[in-house]
Amino acid sequence: MNRFSSITMGMKDALPIVLGIVPIGLAYGLLGQQAGLSFWVVLGLSLFVFAGASQFIAISMFLGGAEPVLIVGTTFIVNFRHLLMSAAIAPRLKSWTVRQRLMMGSMLTDESFAVHSARFARNDVNPAAAITLNIIIYLVWAAAGVAGFHLGPLIARPEAWGLDFALPAMFIGLLLPICTNRPAAIAAVCGGATSALFHLLGLGRWGVFIGALVGATVGVAIKQETKDEETHLG
Amino acid sequence: MDKTWWFIIGGMTVVTLLPRLTPILLLSDRRLPPVIQRWLSLIAPAILSALLLPELFFVRDATPVVPLLASVPTFLVAWWTKSLFKTVVVGIAAVALLRLIGGL
Question: Do A44 and A64 lie in a common domain?
Answer without folding.
Answer: yes
